[in-house]
Amino acid sequence: MPKVSVIVPNYNHEPYLRQRIDSILNQSYQDFELILLDDCSVDNSRDVLMAYKNHPKVTQLVFNEQNSANTFKQWNKGIELAKGEYIWIAESDDWAEASFLEKIIAELNKRENIGLAYVASKLINSVGEVTYENKIQDTNEIIGYTGSQFLSEKLLTSNVIWNASMMVFKKELIYKLKDDSYLEMTYCGDWFLYVQFCEQTNVLEIKSTLNNYRIHADNVSTDAKRTGKYFIEGFKVFKYISNIGNILIPINSLYVWAKMYQKAAREYCFPKELKRDILNSFFNYNPLINIFILFRIILSNLKKV
Asked: Which residue has the higher pLDDT, 286 or 125?
């Protein structure tokens, strides 16, 4: 049985597929299987994927007959096919440094109580140029967190694990989830998934820049911020965390959410219905806290006058 199952869920990423797949096959750590999925792409992705059909590392090549219209359902399909102890969801438009798996698995092998590990990422554009790199995150430092600590410090107002390609998790965690509604989410299903993983296990941060995260106009995350749905799904994740018994929620985190909404509402023309849904998410959370949030917003606006 392979140690790692690598899942590549593709949709219309023909220009990036070869680099993605080759960066997996060229890993210095080779105890893995490769599962290739395609969600009814309308470009020439099928031809690219078929070129790898007979590669010894490829154990599954699945073309959907109907588009699922959901990234996380594709993830789940790959996980159901996976035979490895660990899962790496390698997004089809990203690529990895050759030592990615070697570094992560070496650290996981040293620690039995870690179920999720992630590395640092560079941001790259559609042609592979680096648009952002944080040198502070490339120190090779290893930081361990308890699950509750990671929730409190890293997942309250955003998802610090920017993209799935930068992390590996134990497959067994998926079978102990309390809430599978991440499968119905459009944008924040990964965030919700990591939150539920943290209820079960501890987390390891590896400060080595081994993932290349491609940001382009067709990114799901780009569309999420443009449409504003990030706020509805994201605040649902926050409310789930706030109901976990041992997690203390600082009131300032709600102020952060309110500021994020304010900023996005200025940048994008949200439909009235969407604005109402987002604001209802705040107002239904806690009436007393809403007074505090509104006071802080009014105060910040007065300071700008």
From this structure: 125
